[in-house]
Specification:
Blueprint: E1 2-8, E2 11-16, E3 27-35, H1 38-46, E4 60-68, E5 80-84, E6 86-87, H2 93-96, E7 107-108, E8 122-125, H3 127-132, E9 134-137, H4 144-163, E10 170-174, H5 178-189, E11 193-197, H6 201-207, E12 214-216, H7 223-230, E13 236-241, H8 246-255, E14 256-264, H9 279-284, E15 288-291, H10 298-308, H11 314-317, E16 318-323, H12 327-335, E17 341-345
Parallel strand pairs: 10-11, 10-13, 11-12, 13-14, 14-15, 16-17
Antiparallel strand pairs: 1-2, 3-4, 3-8, 3-17, 4-5, 5-9, 6-7
Length: 347
Amino acid sequence: MQAAYITAPMHVEVCETPAPSLPADGLLLSVKACGVCGSDLRRWREGPAQGSETLIAGHEISGEVLAVGPQVTGYQVGEQLAVAPDVHCGTCYYCEHGLYNLCDTLRLIGITPGWNGGFAEVLALSGEVLRNGIVHRVPASLTFPQAALAEPLSSVLAAHEQARTTLGDTVVVMGAGPIGCLHMAVARARGARVILSEPSAVRRQIAERFGPELVLDPSSQDVVAEVRRVTGGRGAETAICANPVAATHAQAVELVRKRGTVVLFGGLPKANPQTTLNGNRIHYDELRVIGTFSYHPTYHALALEAIRRGLVDSDQIITHTFPLAQAAQAFEQAASGEALKVMVIMQ
């Protein structure tokens, strides 16, 4: 089969590689679409991590069941599935309390060494993935790229549930990459008005399609002052840091109202993960500062349903598609800042 490997910093190679064996308790998936995620781009920029030189990346996956192992019931050849990366243990403290995304031994398809992902023509899903992973059937009306989009949308839906976004809220989204644009779409679907802060002129222009009421350039405008101006001095209900920039954390704390919520959605670089926040503002004005990472498997099913119902317009998010043979170009396009979601399509 053909598969794409990150072989060096900013280098992707598509080559022939042995197809995986059919697990007796699992299945083989003929991959049809796989999205390029921000975490894929970080690995692409840095090169393969030690121990993952032969890892096939890609964790926003959809495809069709190619073969089913003899011990498997409940799946049939030809069924269309959407797959997310998380595979939990089922036995640790967090799994026993239903917090599967916080599993002490969480494995991630396409990220954890030994767990190949979706930038390949065929993907093996073991029995452990079918039992403890995130696998859902694709609604009949969805295309494979739409089904793959359910993975990043899942984490955004979960974040807004934690933030309690509701009708009448003002939500400030900081960052207009694919995830930031999904945050805008979900916030508006939940009845909030959206303010966007984004330094890139190209991304500000792209983001207009998601209907923000105010678009700010943090490189030339005082974002805190502008948010307070349009909220009558009160501040926003929620600020979402959908980027890997620590400075936006501090800014978010200053622009939310009393008892407002700051969502730290984007992880910071592992080499420099520290951030500085105004502790007195958090204390005296009773702010909530929350981190959100991944999601309960039910959000993946909800994401598929949200796309099916048109609550999130996938055509606005998916801006580019490339065949597997052009995976290198797909990564370059995703990194250019001129695309939102880039999909690799298996033909």
